[in-house]
Structure formats: structure tokens, C-alpha cells
Design a protein that fits this description.
By secondary structure, the protein is α/β, with parallel strands linked by helices. It has twelve helices and 19 strands. It binds flavin-adenine dinucleotide. Flavin-adenine dinucleotide binds next to α2, β13, β17 and α10.
Length: 471
């Protein structure tokens, strides 16, 4: 028992439990469409979905290097929630009201994903039980209180601060000193959502080409449209939209745009009724904590715990894991968190471990943009919060495209503060590797100090945040 892992990698448990997808046809020669989307994750597929819904006459193609949902969209923790990367920075650059508007749009996006999944008959094990975040040390409790105060300052009056007893009534996490709860969150089975989306867009007439790697995206010039170049042919389009998130560095000219940050997960075997009677978790809240190297978890539809956190955060030269293969050390670390949170699960087997990449911009702020001059658009840099943000990005890209192709002007969404947000690129190696590794070494050291009884937030963590450009 103990740390024995039955499956490692294989994309994700979410995919493994559904069975390998039937491969779809690759691109077969050069072609022309109205909109070409590069990447078949939530961003790319939602974008194709909303474009086709808005204008069924548009020819839309999605190019995917492996299969739809191969990336983070088929591997994530299944937190469909209202958080997004960069709210404080957007408040500084565009004013607090603009950041609050974006927050409201994010909250509405949680409901929009649930609505659209329901409307399209996508069964993704969605339960909207909100987001529960626990503090398990005094410094974490202080950060929790500050976090709730900040949420209130951004108009989130429904973010509640819970006592240890109130938290335990929902979910008994060992050592909890306090918690917060927000209604703007749902648990999902990530691969079911992305698979359902792929089938839905195919049904709408979107051309989906799998096993088709784009090597370069070219802007429109005097003589030609924008292009997505592959070894199987070139797709020319009025708009080429990049939706490659953590994989972006592999595209020509994009090596230092978004850093591919790793996140890793484990899932247990199904836990017995006696465990759930002890622990609660009846409302299926998504669960997180206030550690610097934070964890995230969910109770799955078949009564497992899926739990994730930062393992090996980043590989030299922006390299990416092979199909989610995960170091044993990371599996052991995640298991230690599981046992600390839920001592009653100490003897439960870890059934599967996997990893994935997310895209991190230099200032940790998400972005969406369409440049009508070059015909190029993109969305991403969601850091760890892309499940909901990808939906907002897709509807924003739709509005930006329609602004160019029809008489539609600005929309509610195209005036949100992340639209057109730009930031400088990451440093070249070895600085990139050194920076990220020092940051996470510092976060882990700070967490250790706080676990060992430090009464206040470790200054190491504050310095690491500043060096990383997070605040
Ligand atoms: C382990 C893990 C846990 C996470 N947990 C959460 C969570 O609980 N909640 C949350 O909000 N966010 C979470 N995230 C982040 C979230 O999953 C992502 O932000 C989101 O899925 C991004 O969607 P996307 O479509 O932009 O990117 P992806 O899903 O990564 O899709 C990009 C797609 O593009 C394809 N592609 C890449 N390059 C090319 C190319 N050159 N040519 C053709 N195709 C290409 C890839 O194969 C991939 O399918 C997590 C991420 C990870 C890795």
C-alpha cells in the first residue's frame, strides 16, 4: 500500500477513466477558412463554439497537435470557479471598477459554462457547491482574513469567513483554524467537459483536425492572409487564434511569451461511506488552502479525492513532461498533503498520478487580444485559473471577431481590462529556470517554517513573490 502508484502519466486519470478517445482525422493539405483556431482545449473549443453559434456561416477550423483535451483542459483539478490571474494588477492599471466588472463577468462565466454544458447535453459531473479554502496555521489564518477582506473590497460580499467549527460542519480537514467559502465555484470532471465540447463543435460544423501540430503562426501581409503552418499543409484564414496556453513556447517566435508551469495531481481509490461520514464534504465544494505552494482538491463523482499542487514547477528551456509523467517525489509530496488533511485516508492507495502545464506570463496576468491588422489573436496566461477564464476568453474573442466581420461595435466583454493587455517576455535561460526554482524553493521553505510554528507569514515568501513579479 503506502505510496504504491498504479498509473503514472497517461495524460490524466480523467482521461483514463473515460477510455482513450477515437482519433479524429488530421489536416490533409492546405486549406482556407474564415477563422483558424490553434489548440483544442477549453479556449480553442469554446471559441469555435461561440463563433459558430453567433454566425453558422463562418468556416471555422481547430488544429490540435494530439487530441482535443490533451493539454491542461483534460488534466486539471476541476475547479470551475470565479478566480482569475491579475485582478489586483488590473485594478491598478484600469481602476477598481474595471477589475470588479471583470470579476462579475467571471462569476457569470461559471454559470455560463454550466448553462452551455446543460444546453448541449454535456454530462461533466458538475456540482455547484462553491469554493472552500482552509487555513491550517496562524500565518495562513491571517492571510485568509486578508483574502476575505480583499474579496469584499472587490464586491464579493458573498465570500464568507467561517470559524473552525463552521468549516468542519462542511468538511473536516485536520488542523483547520478557519476557512472561507464562496458560492462562485463548481466541481467538474474536466475531461468530460472538454470531450463533450469537442463533440459539440463537430456537430455544429467546425472542422476539427487532430494529430496536426502547428509550427508557426504567420501574420497577414500585403499579399496573404494570416496562416497556421503545419507539416500537413497550411491553413490560411482571415483570423488565426492562438489557444495553446502552456505549450505556446514550442511555437516559432514564442519561446519566452508564457512560461510553461507544471502542476501535478494524484487521485485516490474510491473512499468508503465510513470515510465520508467522518469527513462530510456532502456539498462537493472545491477545496484549497492558503499555503504559499497551495493545494487544490475535489471529491469526485465516484467518491475519490483528487488533489493537486506544485511538484517540479518548471523544466529548463521550457520543456514539457511526456504525457503527464510525474516524479515519484512529487507523488510522495502530494500524498503527504492528503494524509495531513485527511488522516483517515492514510492507508488509501493512490490510483493515478499525472501532471500538466499551464501558461504563466511575466506579470502573472491573463490576457485576450485580436489584432485586426495582422489577423492574429490569442488568449491565455491564465496561470492556475483557466477553466472558467477560457470561457470568458472565448466569448470575448467571438465579440472581437464579430467587431471586424459585422457592424457589431464594442461589447460588454471587449471593454474588460484584460483585453489587449501586454507584458514583457520572460528572461532567457538560465535566468528563467533560476528565477522559478528559487521562487518555489522559497515558497516551500516558507511553508515549512509556518508549519513548524512561525506565527506570521514568512518574509521569505514576500521576497519570492516580489522577485517572481507576482505582486
Ligand atoms: C494539473 C493542472 C490542474 C489545474 N487545475 C485547475 C483548476 O482546478 N481550475 C482552473 O481554473 N484551472 C486549472 N488549471 C489550469 C487550466 O486547466 C487551464 O488554464 C486551461 O485548461 C487552459 O485551457 P486552454 O485551452 O487555454 O489550454 P490547454 O487545455 O492546455 O489546451 C491547449 C491545446 O493546444 C494544443 N496545442 C499546443 N500547441 C499546439 C500546436 N503547436 N499545434 C496544435 N495544437 C497545439 C495542446 O495539445 C492542447 O490540447 C490546471 C492546470 C493543470 C495543468
Amino acid at each position: 500500500m503506502g505510496t504504491v502508484t498504479t498509473t503514472n502519466g497517461g495524460v490524466s486519470f480523467w482521461y483514463a477513466s473515460l477510455g482513450a478517445p477515437e482519433p479524429r482525422r488530421p489536416l490533409d493539405g492546405s486549406t482556407e477558412v474564415d477563422v483558424c483556431v490553434v489548440g483544442g482545449g477549453y479556449t480553442g473549443l469554446w471559441t469555435a463554439y461561440y463563433l459558430k453559434k453567433a454566425d453558422p456561416s463562418l468556416r471555422v477550423a481547430v488544429l490540435e497537435q494530439r487530441f482535443c483535451g490533451y493539454g491542461a483542459s483534460g488534466r486539471n483539478g476541476g475547479w470551475l470557479y470565479g478566480g482569475f490571474a491579475g485582478r489586483a494588477a488590473f485594478a491598478r492599471s484600469h481602476g477598481k471598477d474595471a477589475a470588479i466588472r471583470m470579476q462579475q463577468a467571471m462569476n457569470a462565466s461559471v454559470d455560463e459554462v454550466i448553462r452551455a454544458a446543460d444546453a448541449e447535453g454535456i454530462e461533466a459531473d458538475i456540482v455547484k457547491g462553491g469554493v472552500l479554502e482552509v487555513a491550517r496555521s496562524r500565518p495562513q489564518l491571517a492571510r485568509l482574513q486578508a483574502f476575505v477582506a480583499e474579496e469584499h473590497a472587490f464586491g464579493q460580499q458573498d465570500q464568507l469567513l467561517l470559524s473552525a467549527t463552521e468549516a468542519a460542519e462542511r468538511l473536516a480537514v485536520a488542523g483547520t483554524l478557519g476557512a472561507s467559502w464562496s458560492p462562485h465555484g463548481a466541481r467538474i470532471q474536466p475531461a468530460r467537459l472538454v470531450r463533450g465540447l469537442a463533440a459539440t463543435v463537430l456537430g455544429l460544423g467546425v472542422e476539427v483536425y487532430e494529430g496536426t501540430t502547428v509550427t508557426e503562426i504567420r501574420p497577414a501581409g500585403a499579399e496573404r492572409q494570416a496562416q497556421a503552418v503545419t507539416a500537413r499543409g497550411t491553413v490560411s484564414a482571415r483570423f488565426v487564434l492562438r489557444a495553446t496556453e502552456g505549450f505556446t513556447a514550442a511555437l516559432r517566435g514564442q519561446r519566452r511569451t508564457w512560461l510553461p508551469m507544471n502542476s501535478s495531481m494524484i487521485v485516490t481509490d474510491p473512499l468508503p461511506a465510513s470515510f465520508w461520514e467522518q469527513v462530510g464534504w456532502q456539498r462537493r465544494e472545491t477545496l484549497g488552502d492558503l499555503a504559499h505552494a497551495y493545494m487544490y482538491a475535489q471529491r469526485t463523482a465516484d467518491d475519490r479525492i483528487a488533489l493537486g499542487g506544485r511538484g517540479v514547477p518548471y523544466r529548463f528551456g521550457s520543456r514539457i513532461d511526456h504525457d503527464g509523467a510525474t516524479a515519484q517525489r512529487t507523488v510522495d509530496e502530494l500524498r503527504a498533503i492528503l494524509t495531513a488533511f485527511f488522516p483517515a485516508a492514510a492507508d488509501t492507495r493512490v490510483a493515478h498520478a499525472w501532471s500538466g502545464v499551464l501558461g504563466v506570463p511575466r506579470d502573472w496576468c491573463c490576457t485576450v487580444e485580436l489584432d485586426p491588422r495582422t489577423g492574429l489573436g490569442w488568449a491565455g496566461g491564465y496561470v492556475g485559473s483557466g477553466v472558467t477564464t477560457a470561457n470568458l476568453a472565448a466569448r470575448t474573442l467571438r465579440d472581437l471577431v464579430l467587431r471586424e466581420t459585422s457592424a457589431a461595435g464594442e461589447s460588454e466583454l471587449t471593454t474588460l481590462p484584460w483585453v489587449g493587455h501586454t507584458v514583457r517576455r520572460w528572461e532567457p535561460e538560465p535566468l528563467r529556470w533560476l528565477g522559478v526554482h528559487s521562487m518555489y524553493t522559497a515558497f516551500h521553505a516558507a511553508d515549512r517554517q509556518e508549519r513548524d510554528g512561525r506565527p506570521t507569514t514568512s518574509p521569505i515568501a514576500r521576497v519570492a513573490d516580489r522577485i517572481a513579479g507576482r505582486h
